[in-house]
Structure formats: C-alpha cells, structure tokens
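User: Could you walk me through two proteins back to back? I'd like the raw sequence and the structure tokens for each, with a short line separating them so I can tell where one ends and the next begins.

Assistant: Of course. Protein one, sequence then structure:
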Amino acid sequence: MDAMIVFRDALKSAHKYFRATVADVTSEDARYVPPGIAHPIGSRYAHCVTGDDFLVHVFLQGGAPLYETTFKNKTGISAPRLDAPLEWARAVQVDLPALTNYMDATFAASEAHFDSMTEKDLERTVDLTAAGVGVLPMPVFLADFVIGHLHDVMGEISAVKGLLGKKGYPF
C-alpha cells in the first residue's frame, strides 16, 4: 500500500467523523459561549471548514479558497477568516444550513485533490515560515495540518457539546 492511500483514507475518515460530530448541532448550541476562554461550537465549526478550504486550495493547489471564490458571501459565516482569535470566536455568527453546504463542497474538493495526489507529491515541502512553523515535508503537513486539524477541532467541539449535555464524538 502506498502512503497516499493512507492519507486519502485518513482524510475521508476525518471528514466523515467531523460531519457526524456536528450533525446534531443546533443554532442555540452553535452560539453557546462556554466558560473560560473556550470557543463556541459555531466558531470552531467555521474555523475548521475554512481551514480545510484554505490549506488544500492555497497550500496544495496554489489557488484561492472557496470562501473567496465559489462560496464568497455564501459560507454561512458572518466574517470568514482563517485565524480564530477569541474576540472573533465570540462574535462570529453562523447559518448552519449554509455552513453545512460550504462544508460539503469544501470536503468534496479536498477529497478530490487528495485523490489526484501521487507518491511523488509526498516528496514536496510546504513553506509555513510566515506562520512561524517553517518548511515542512508534505507528509507532516498532511498529517498534522490538514487531517490532524480536523481531529483537533472535532475534539474541541465534542468537549463543548459535553458541557451542553450532548454526545460529542459519534463513536
């Protein structure tokens, strides 16, 4: 088995479980401000999808993210942005049906790009110097920043769902 098969399957699995984690989130759940400095579910959901969109469309494809093109003003996110400072997280509003449509399109595009990647692509590097990370080998970028990010945010959302008395992870 080549490594790209593992990355493809891992991305599809992360998308599947993320979708299931947010499937029962209501508008009220999305707006709930948890104690401390934890972020509301809606902001984490928005951040995760825009992150997937940006990482794949910009860093892997060298293009523009869907939230600036096909989904401009249609993401369901009142103020889409890649970073997620606390002030933004507490202020951003999400329209869950529109955000779900944007998520579905983003995830489909990401999976299609992963399907087009070959073992040769894994020899590339990704320059995240501007973000203070440095230059990463492609496998590390895919595992940590694309797939790992989905799992990280899914955990945050699951924790806040737990505060609301709901089941977090779908398994």
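----
Protein two, same layout:
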Amino acid sequence: MGEKLHTIDDGIEPNVQWAEPLVDLFVDRRVDLVRLAYLLTGHQAIAEEVVQDAFINTQRAWNRVEHPWSYLRSAVVNGCRSWGRRQAVAQAHPPDRPEPDLLEADELWDALNALDERRRTALILRYYLDLPTAEIADILGCRPATARTMIHRGLRQLRKDIEQ
C-alpha cells in the first residue's frame, strides 16, 4: 500500500499507525463531522465524543475502508443514533424515586435542576448564599415581590417533585 503512516501516541493505544488520508480527513473534516453530530444530538460534548469514536473505529477498520469520507460520515450518524437509542431507553425506564426522607444530595440536585433558571437562581441565592430578598431582586433585575414569588414557587415545585 504505499501510504505514508503517522505514528500517534494517544495514551490509550501507544504508537498506533494512522494512514495519511485519515489524518488529512481529521484535519480537514473533523469540524464538519462535529457539527453534523451536534445537529443530531443537540450536545456539543456528545458530538465531539461520537466523532472521536468514529475516527478511532475507522482507523481500526482502515484496511477494509474503501471510501473514508462516506465511512466516517456513516459512522458519525450511526454513533448519534446509538446515543439516541440509549437516551430513549434511559428515559423510558427512569429509576424509582426514593422516599423523601431518603433523598441524597444527587436527588435534590436533580430536582433543583428541573426548575427553570430564574427560580433555581433565586433559590440558590436565598438558601445557599443566604441573601435577603432585596439583593436577590437586584441580582435578578426584578422587584423584590417578584423575587419572593420566584422563591415561593420554586420551593413549591421542589416539594412537588420530591414528594412524587
């Protein structure tokens, strides 16, 4: 095969030989593939991971790859679909909610993250930083009555989510 090979020490598989056409694809088309994966998953970190996995799998199968760009693009799409299926299964089978008195920090964090950003921010400012309502209102750019309402409604939503 007279291809020029690049030796790469990635820390996982040291001194792996990468074919020059694959290295060129990485340099020239990686951003395009990450963009494609992002559009399919909606998550930047997942998109980058899927593309990285696609390049590694392509390198491993290099002797069987006839059309590298098509192979990579298909590997990215398939990787995104696999990720989507795993997400769907995880959402279809959520873990049972623990009893309210058995809640740990992670469950409380999950309930807090389920709130909209302004309510979550108001609760954190009030109960983590122990700020008075006037300061919370100033930070959020609203009236003190609005800040009190956000705190009240946020607490009500937390109670509802935790008791379910």
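Residues 54 and 79 are 7 Å apart (CA to CA).

Let me know if you want the two compared in more detail.
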